[in-house]
Amino acid sequence: MSNAGTYQCQITDKVPLRMHVHLTVKPRPPPKPAAVKIIGEPFVDQGEPIQLICNATGPRVPEKIDWFKDGTKLDAAAHGGMLIEEFMRVEHHALVSKLKIRNTDTKSSGTYICRSSDKKIDSLKVTVLVADTMNKKRETDSHVDVKNKDLLIGGDKEETEGAKDGSISAHPTLSLVLTLSMCTALYRILS
Prior knowledge:
Layout: E1 5-11, E2 17-23, E3 35-40, E4 43-45, E5 50-57, E6 65-69, E7 72-73, E8 82-89, E9 94-101, E10 110-116, E11 121-129, H1 133-141, E12 142-145, E13 150-153, H2 157-161, H3 175-190
Parallel strand pairs: 4-11
Antiparallel strand pairs: 1-2, 3-5, 5-9, 6-7, 6-10, 8-9, 10-11, 12-13
């Protein structure tokens, strides 16, 4: 702050040149506190990769980021389907680490933790979803009549239209299954 003020620049020649410049010195903003943040999807389909990004920031860029799953440190060299990349973003005072796990299964589900060398931690619970063959079969047996805005699940149109109480199924025991299937099918149509 003591360097603020008006400065003069002179060039001596046949015609002397002078220029006045006013310098304003602003205080440096306070450093951001050290922090760690994980970004990624909490739900992944079986066989699809888990991809997580850990962003560690602070007044000093951390030297390293370690990854853990359910408290156990991950080692990409010991796991063929795992890749860990790190790179620095100097302009943001950040160290970024990307974790990618290929060919996921239910054993890949768990709590993933990233920890910076200055001991800041964040975690994300990831669940690998497994769709059984029954669900896939139901999807192929579903019928949707968008023209009449009727949603028919399983069987022929005559079997499902005949309910006197306005429900889709004339069989009360099937109502819950049909309702859940309708929601799933309707979601797929609308999205």
